[in-house]
Amino acid sequence: MGIRNYTGAPKAALALGLVAAVIGSLSFMSPAMGEPAGLTKKQSDALNTYNNSRGNFESILSQRRAQINSNQPLPNLPGQALYLARNNMMSAYKDLTDALPSRIGGPNKYGIPPAYFEARNEPLLDEYRRLFDLMQAPPANAQKSDAPFKDVVDLGTAIARARGLDATNAEAAGRISLGLFFAETNGNQNIGNARSNKYKGSLQTGVPEDQNGRRKWAAIKKSIAAFDPALNIRDDKEEARAGNLDHRYNHWTAVRDGLMNAHADIFPQVPSIVKTLPDPIDQMKLFELIQIIPSPTKSALKSSNLLNYRISDPTIMGYLRNNSVFTFGQADRAKTSATFREILDAMWLFNDKFERALSKFDEIKKQSKG
Question: What pLDDT does residue 1 have?
Fold first, then answer.
């Protein structure tokens, strides 16, 4: 965890010998987009930039697919070029719709605001996600859970209870924890990271964060054993199972240590957070900001006015942009400061993941009551 900065490429090379099932070759036929008459130069330039960025995204998708299907070694950080190309296409489309509002189309299945994403590009984003699933596949020795979502909820709830929360607020902490799992991994356990050689596993931690979380867990383990002996027994089994394995590749220990590292200290504030942010998705967004910009978020929580707390440090704004917040289009990138309310609203790319987390949480609750 910690401030996410994926811009620097580590020296170590990453060779992923992945063999993809034959899903089919890319055949994205771009409809002819002739330049309408009567466009201003600004509109014409925006249209050309968008067409070029879309074509570049298609090209990089095709290149990665060909490399994977032919079992070629991939470059270091193979997802970074894809990520940047996707962002450039969405940015160019937002600039186009700013210049030519008539180009704003209908809704898309990903819930992205139509001014930022053209629905006909859904197949490109589908392929983008498929490629990331392949490039970030767990290592062969990873230790999966048969109930990964319930594990996250159980751990988040138990940690919150150990930090003094009542049943209702501990449940909220468990729900928020599941949102973090979806935000970090799209709900996939034990994954690598195609954009970073540092962050790995079910809660995307670095080695120091994982080790810090293990130490903090050891400090509360006895208190958790007192009120939830079954969870403590499960924890002992997973510790023994993990042995000398990188604990980030055992789903249970990865989630446990990740939550303990950054979020357990914030769980006591869940009652006030829920009061300030009654929308569960906003709550999840705030805790995801603990992942992205931890220090400013903690400062905002300590302030007397969370939603109006303003970020203006250029470095922090850069970290937000590097995580798809104020990233798309010239108007968004020109922002030099933002309140936390504005930041939460700008995290719309996380909405789909958090909505799926909420659906899965409701499913787990029904099963536990049934």
Answer: 47
Is the separation of the CB atoms in 149 and 187 below 8 Å? yes
**Are residues 85 and 116 located together in one domain of the fold?**
yes
Of 72, 101, 135, the residue that ends a domain is 135
232 part of a folded domain: yes
pTM here is: 0.89
The crossing angle, in degrees rounded to 10, of helices 167-185 and 280-292 is 60
pLDDT in tens, 108-140: 999 999 999 999 999 999 999 999 999 999 999
Q: Tell me if 213 sits within 8 A of 258, measured CB to CB.
A: yes
Give the H/E segment covering residue 310.
Answer: strand 310-311
Angle (CA) 132 135 141, round 5°: 125
Full domain range(s) for residue 94: 41-135
Provide DSSP, 6-24.
--SPPSS------------
Query: Which amino acid would we find at residue 197?
Result: N
CA-CA-CA-CA torsion sign (277, 281, 282, 287): positive
Tokens at 135, concatenated: 């490039």
Total residue length of the chain: 370
95 and 187 inside one domain: no
Give per-residue pLDDT as tens, 230-289: 999 999 999 999 999 999 999 999 999 999 999 999 999 999 999 999 999 999 999 999
| 234 and 125 housed in the same domain | no
pLDDT for residue 35: 54
Is residue 131 domain-shared with residue 152, that is, in the same domain?
A: no
In whole angstroms, what is the distance from residue 176 CA to residue 181 CA? Answer: 9
Asked whether residue 218 is assigned to any structural domain, the reply reads: yes
Q: Please give the Cα distance from 247 to 338 (Å, whole number).
A: 37
In the beta sheet, which residues pair with residue 143? 250
Query: Which residue in the block uniquely carries the two structure tokens 């108007």?
Result: 331
Any idea which residue has 């937000």 for tokens?
Answer: 320
Same domain, 282 and 304: yes
Single residue among 101, 135, 169 that ends a domain in this structure: 135
Are residues 121 and 158 both part of a single domain? Answer: no
Any domain includes 253? yes
- With a cut of 50, list the residues of the chain below it in pLDDT: 1-3, 6-33
State the pLDDT at residue 21. 33
Query: Which tokens hold the place of 137?
Result: 């596949």
